[in-house]
Amino acid sequence: MKKNYVLLIALMVLIIMPFGTINAQEQSIQPEKVKTPIHFDVSKKLMDVEPVVPGYRDRTWKDKVVKNMDGFLEEFKRPSVMIGEDPVLQDEIASSRETATVGENFPGVSNLSGVAPPDTQGDVGDNHYLQMVNSSFQIWDKNGSSLYGPADIITIWNGFTGPWSSTNDGDPIVLYDEYTDRWMVSQFSLPNYPSGPFYELIAVSQTSDPTGAWNRYAYEFSNMPDYPKFGIWPDGFYMAINQFAPPSLSFAGGGICVFDRDAMISGDPNAQMIFFNLGTSYGSLLPADVDGATLPPSGAPNYFINLGTSSLRIWEVDVDWNNTSNSSTTLVSTLTTASFSYSCISINQPGTSQTLDALASRLMFRLQYRNFGTHQSMVTNHTVNVGSSRAGVRWYELRNTGSGWSIYQQGTYAPADGNHRWMGSIAMNGNGDIGLGYSVSGSSTYPSIRVAGQTAGAPNGLGVFDIAETSILEGSASQTGVNRWGDYSMMSVDPSDDATFWYTTEYSSGGWNWKTQVASFYYSEPVPVAPVADFSADATYVGTGGAVNFQDQSTGNPTSWSWSFPGGTPSTSTAQNPTVYYNTAGTYDVTLTVTNSEGNDTKTVTGYITVEDTPITYCASQGTNSSYEWISNVHFGSYSNSSGAAGYTDFTGQVVSMDAGSNVSVSLTPGFSSSTYTEYWKVWIDY
Known about the structure:
With 687 residues, the protein is an all-beta fold.
C-alpha cells in the first residue's frame, strides 16, 4: 500500500534556532604529540625565597593588557537574536528566602603590576588559601592572615632558569588537589611574542604547605597556548587551550593537554604531556575538575565541555600512560540548551561611558565535577543577554545516572533591577548545595561582588535559586580606560567540611586600579518541616502520543515522591520529575504525594491533562534574514526543490509519494553569501 506524505521542511534562518543534536558524534581524535618537559627542578622552600616585589614589567607588546583572543570561532561570529524572553529566566526571589552567611571576607591582591584584567584565581585547602592574579600571588591561612606575599608570580619559579626567566605573562591557574593534599599552579610564558616557542610553566607542591618546596616543570608549545584552563582528575592534570599560530597569531584550533599527575607529584623529570589538536571548529573548552569524597568511577574518562550556539558539547578524554598511542579524545554528545543570546551585551557603570567586557562566547571557569554515587554531576555557567543588552548568568547542572550526560537543570539568574550580572563561577558542595559568584554593575551600581545559590533538592524548583543574592563587597568606583574585566573568577569548596564555599573576583577603585576580594560563605541547615506538595507541567494540552514533563514544585525538602497518572505511560512514578506519555484522547487527573521525616502531603489536580487527537499543524518560523546563509535546495528521494537566497518559505502544498516503511534519502544544500559555516538543521515530516 502507498501513502501520500506531505514533506514539510522548516526553512528558517539558522541563527534563530540552531540544533546541535544532529551534529556528528563519536568523533575520535588521536594524540598529535607526546612531549616531556624541556626543564625540571625542585625549588627551595618558598618560605626561604625572598619574594620578588610585584611591579610593572616592560613587555611592550602587552601595552599593559594581558592578551586574550576572542571572536575567533565561526559559530559565534554571527549575531545571535533572542525572540521573546529567555525561557529559563529567574528575575526574582521570594523575599522570605534566606541569604548566605558570609564567613571570612578579606582583601586579596590588588593591581600591583599595572596590567588588566586580573584573571582572578584562588583555591582553598585544608589549612591555606592561595590566590593568583596577573601578575602576583599571596598565601593566607583560612582566617585571612597573610603567610607569604604579595609577590610577583615569577617568585615561584625563582632560579628556574630558561627563556621564561624575565617574563611574567599571566593567565594564572591555582588548584588544590584534595586527594593528594598538594597544590598545582601554572601560568604561560611568551618570551618571543608574537613568535614562538611559547611555554606553560607548572609547579606542584611537595607537601600540603604551599610555602614549602615545589616540583617545577616547563613545557614547550609551537603555537601560543592561550586561555589555559586546568582540571584535576585521578589520572592527570587536564588542560584546555586556544591555539594561535605565530607570528600572525591566527586561530589554530582548540587543544587538550594531559599531564601525568602521578609523575609530576613524585617529581619525575620526564613527566609526559599528551596533546590533542581539535581543529579550528572548536575552542574555549573547560576540563572537569573533581571535588568531593568520592572519586569518579574507576577508569572513567575526563570530561570537557565547550559552548555552542544554544548547545553544550561533551567530550571524553581517555588516557593510557602505559601506551600513549591508545589515548583518545572523543566528541560524544551535543546537548541542546534552552535558547540564549550572546550578542549585544553592554555592561555600563555609573558616571562613565566606559563599558565592561562580557566575554559571553565561552563557558566560565570552572567545570566542577562530583560523584554522588547514584549520579554524577557537573556544574558550569556563562554570560547571556537577557534583553535590552543586559547581562545575566546562565548556569547548568548536568547529570549522568549511568546512560550518559544530560542537562538536569538550567537557569538564567538576572533579578529585574536593571543591573548586569556576569563573569560568574559556580560550584556544588557535598550536600548538593550550589553557590554562584559573579560581578554586578549598572547605571547606578558600581562594579560589585555578590553571590546567590540553590540549596540541595531545588526546593523552589529546578533551575531556580532559593538562596537570595548576598553582597560580598559593594563597589564605590567605576573602571575607566580599559574594558577588559575578569577574564575569569573562582568558586571553590572547602575540603575540610565539603560545605563552605570560597569565592574570589575583582572590583574597581577607579581607572585601572582593580582590586580583589576573598570571601567564604555557607548556607544554614533548614529547620525540618513537613513538605507541601505542588507540581507543574510543561504542557497541559497535548496531542495523542505526546509527552508531558512534570516538575516537582513542592516545598519543605521532600525526600520521596509518589505520582499517579491515570491514562498515562507510566501510570505511576517515584521519580522527582517524571516524563509521561499520553496515547489516548481524554481528560486525566494527576496526583503527587511527597514525604520527608516530618510527614507527607498529597495534591490532586482533577482534569489537569487534556489529550486530543493530534491535528495536522505546521510550524511557524520568523527566520527572514538571509544575509549570511539559507537553504538553497531540498532533495527527498526523487523530489527536488530549489530556492534562492530567502528566509522561511512555505512549500507545504507540495506532496511526495513514498512507500510506507521504505528508506528515503534526504539532503539539504546550504547557500552562503560569503563565509562557509557549519549548519545545524532539523527536518519534520507530516504524514
